[in-house]
Design a protein that fits this description.
This protein is an alpha+beta fold. The chain has 10 helices and 10 strands.
């Protein structure tokens, strides 16, 4: 009998992003604060008995062997020897390459969703280990808790952050992460700080070390940062292209979005979450109905 499951794949923001060094293998050492949003993609899974993994719709410019959803499903199946397959449907809301972690979140939702649907019973720790092979941001989505992250983003310490309303804007350009991290002028030696100090300093003093480089390389991002910054404190997330402003109430978010007026920009509002909507959904499914 076919079983099915529909789950969110939420966006994340980097509320803070420091680059503290560059490793011999070319990766950068980071310190960052991850927080989830109550907005993202949706993935629907249905079991198949023939072992086939089928994803719809296809993503433009992404080959099947490179798609993180299918890679996550294959990795989980190879790890466990599971012979089941799945039909997977993706409702894509997050812009690709926007710094919101959409691909990593989709991969994490696939790992957790198929782990539940196939009855594999792997722990979150093991799923996070598998996820790290897919990308440095996947483990935070697997664990599902806002976190202080170090290393390349995989060493996680759970935190509780403020949960304001956010306006998020994508200024209609695609940022190439390798170009940002390869830029000669990128700040790479910010002195490391403790998590306690970062939390004590608070959002007004947090920054993203990639922002000045992305502003220089991508003028539309600089323009969007200036526009949104008229209304509220504004920052880049990840390497962009998305940027966000934090606000005290939903009405202010609505007011800003009404003024957007740019057909080449996409914008949405969302609430910050310290517990991932994916994990809330899974816990709800696991709770028996009275």
């Amino acid at each position: 009998m076919t079983a099915s499951l529909s789950l969110p794949a939420p966006a994340k923001l980097n509320r803070l992003l420091h680059i503290t060094g560059r490793r011999a293998d070319g990766y950068h050492e980071l310190q960052t604060l991850f927080q989830f949003l109550d907005h993202g993609d949706t993935l629907t899974f249905a079991t198949r008995d023939d072992g086939t993994l089928h994803l719809s719709p296809t993503l433009p410019g992404v080959a099947a062997e490179e798609n993180l959803i299918l890679r996550a499903a294959r990795l989980l199946r190879d790890e466990t020897g599971c012979r089941q397959g799945a039909d997977i449907h993706l409702e894509k809301r997050l812009p690709m390459g926007g710094g919101l972690g959409g691909g990593s979140s989709d991969a994490a939702t696939t790992l957790l969703g198929l782990n539940a649907l196939w009855g594999l019973d792997l722990s979150l720790e093991r799923l996070a280990e598998l996820g790290l092979a897919l990308g440095a941001d996947v483990p935070v989505f697997v664990h599902g808790q806002a976190a202080w992250a170090e290393g390349i983003g995989e060493r996680l310490t759970p935190v509780e952050l403020d949960t304001p309303w956010f306006v998020v804007i994508h200024p209609g350009v695609s940022v190439a992460t390798p170009a940002v991290f390869g830029a000669p002028g990128l700040t790479r030696h910010t002195p490391p700080i403790s998590m306690a100090r970062a939390l004590q300093e608070g959002p007004e003093r947090w920054r993203n070390d990639c922002e000045s480089t992305v502003r220089e390389l991508y003028p539309p991002v600089a323009e969007a940062l200036e526009w949104l910054g008229q209304f509220a404190p504004t920052r880049l997330t990840g390497t962009g292209a998305c940027l966000f402003a934090w606000l005290t109430n939903e009405a202010d978010a609505d007011s800003i979005l009404r003024r957007l007026g740019r057909h080449d920009w996409q914008g949405f509002k969302a609430r910050g979450c310290n517990r991932s909507p994916l994990h809330v959904a899974l816990e709800t499914l696991a709770t028996p109905t009275p």
